[in-house]
Design goal:
Layout (H helix, E strand, L loop, with lengths): L2 E17 L2 E15 L2 E8 L3 H5 L2 H8 L18 H19 L3 H5 L6 E3 L1 E4 L7 H7 L7 E5 L5 H11 L4 E4 L7 H11 L4 E5 L7 H10 L4 E3 L10 H4 L4 E4 L1 H4 L2 H13 L3 E4 L6 H9 L6 E2 L16 E3 L2 E3 L2
Parallel strand pairs: 5-6, 6-7, 7-8, 8-9, 9-10, 10-11, 11-12
Antiparallel strand pairs: 1-2, 2-3, 4-14, 13-14
Length: 322
């Protein structure tokens, strides 16, 4: 019989993490514990928004859901719960089943084992005069690429300032901050001479027709983030974007994330594997499913003052797991 429990983790960040939707200097995540016949495993739950954390959505849903009939990871898909909690439950159970079979998690999932991947390092939205100092603080120079969060205020100037202090490729994430196709094209025109890998979710996800206008006009690949949640990757999404950002906390599980990756590659879309602000437990989970992925953006565990697990090591912008 499976025995489940939920542990709360309250962790301070090294700095204030600010994106277009808000900011925080403290993170509340949760650890799902599962045990059967003395064998134990864990999965992480990282709320997608601060509102979820402040409202206590995760522990509330956990206390209300019945796990009595759950024995197989596919059973999690039948539960009426939010995606981050679904991932925490599914991943814990998959980790348990893999242990019971004496297999690695990738082997259990039918994937090749990956032990080392490059990652970008992210900059929150910052005043222009604080960018250079923050980049030194985060040791940005030794990462292979830098990801910049921008908002409505001075997005072009922010990118230009970062480019003064970083010679490698830049990734831009607007988190829906720009208003329409014309705004995005104006923004792109101001940064297109820089070494830009892609622009992530520049407009709100409901602006479907604007994205369809933007895709053929943009000289920079446009990547879906907020436009891709738990749904399947289909032709409608492919008409809007050049690629997708897959996050385990948004898909709700390993199995759904792999389905999104496979569908995207079949349609000729690029795939980035991303993360929330989460510990090395969940970052390791993302690395597990890195087969066929073009880009990795898995720096969330580097933001904590004291990361609790130490399951992933970072050196010169590369992440390694045992």
């Amino acid at each position: 019989m499976l025995h489940w429990s939920l542990e709360t983790l309250e962790m301070d960040l090294k700095f204030t993490w600010k994106i277009s939707r808000g900011s925080t200097s403290r993170k509340i995540n949760y650890i799902v514990h599962v045990e059967e016949n003395g064998i134990k495993a864990m999965g992480e739950v990282a709320g997608i928004t601060q509102a979820e954390a402040s409202a206590g959505l995760i522990p509330k849903q956990y206390s209300q859901v019945s796990l009595d009939g759950v024995t197989d990871p596919t059973d999690i898909n039948k539960l009426d719960i939010c995606a981050p909690l679904a991932f925490g439950l599914e991943s814990a159970l998959i980790h348990l089943r893999a242990k019971q079979k004496g297999q690695s998690v990738p082997h259990y999932l039918g994937l090749e084992e990956i032990h080392k991947v490059p990652t970008s390092i992210s900059l929150p939205i910052l005043p222009l005069d604080e960018i250079a100092e923050f980049m030194k603080f985060q040791r940005v120079e030794h990462f292979p690429c830098c990801k910049i969060k921008v908002g409505q205020e001075k997005p072009i100037e922010s990118c230009l300032e970062v480019a003064k202090h970083f010679a490698g490729p830049l990734r831009i994430d607007a988190n829906e901050a720009l208003q329409n196709c014309e705004d995005v094209l104006h923004f792109i025109d101001g940064i297109k001479h820089l070494n830009i890998e892609f622009l992530e979710q520049p407009m709100a996800s409901h602006l479907v027709e604007e994205y369809k206008k933007l895709k053929p006009l943009s000289p920079i690949p446009i990547i879906a983030d907020e436009s891709l949640q738990q749904q399947k990757v289909d032709a409608e999404l492919a008409r809007q974007f050049h690629g997708i950002n897959v996050k385990l906390m948004k898909t709700g599980g390993y199995l759904k994330a792999r389905e999104q990756i496979q569908a995207a590659k079949h349609m000729g879309l690029n795939v980035m594997l991303g993360c929330m602000v989460e510990t090395s437990l969940a970052i390791r989970s993302a690395i597990y499913i890195g087969q066929d992925v073009d880009w990795f953006d898995l720096d969330g565990f580097l933001f904590f003052k004291e990361e609790p697990f130490g399951l992933v090591q970072e050196k010169n912008g590369y992440l390694t797991i045992e």
